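Design job #97: recover the sequence.
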């Protein structure tokens, strides 16, 4: 637990040191807040519910206590790993920005930065998509149908 605390403390300190890079990248706040930003829309539209919306609709879906506990755990996992990955993305985006700001950008440094950012953004999307896959395993078929209806996705 102390390792996790140290890790979180490190990232919190790193974030407060960002200075003039408040708008780098443009989706900074969404990344830092672990927002989905439509990354799991393929899942959502094809009967793979998202834990955030399942919690919002828990009464209409008739979640059992066990289902609610599993969904909340899944949501907390997405928030934690999503925020940590989002923080890494922001840090890498700032470094890429600094290359251009300091006139140090070249093919090699830009490619390396873009590849790191792309890998992290892919990991973030996986975190969100994986949560939808796991959520489908928690709900019953009827709950998924009801979820689709409540979210306006029709039936699949």
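Job complete. Output follows.
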């Amino acid at each position: 637990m102390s390792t996790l605390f140290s890790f979180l403390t490190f990232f919190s300190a790193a974030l407060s040191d960002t200075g003039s890079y408040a708008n780098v990248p443009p989706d900074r706040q969404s990344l830092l807040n672990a927002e989905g930003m439509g990354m799991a829309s393929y899942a959502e539209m094809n009967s793979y519910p998202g834990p955030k919306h399942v919690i919002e609709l828990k009464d209409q879906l008739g979640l059992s206590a066990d289902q609610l506990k599993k969904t909340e755990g899944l949501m907390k996992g997405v928030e934690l790993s999503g925020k940590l990955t989002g923080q890494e993305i922001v840090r890498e985006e700032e470094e890429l920005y600094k290359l251009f700001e300091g006139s140090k950008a070249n093919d090699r440094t830009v490619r390396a930065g873009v590849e790191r950012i792309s890998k992290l953004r892919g990991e973030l999307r996986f975190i969100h998509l994986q949560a939808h896959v796991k959520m489908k395993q928690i709900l019953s078929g009827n709950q998924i149908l009801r979820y689709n209806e409540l979210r306006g996705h029709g039936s699949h």
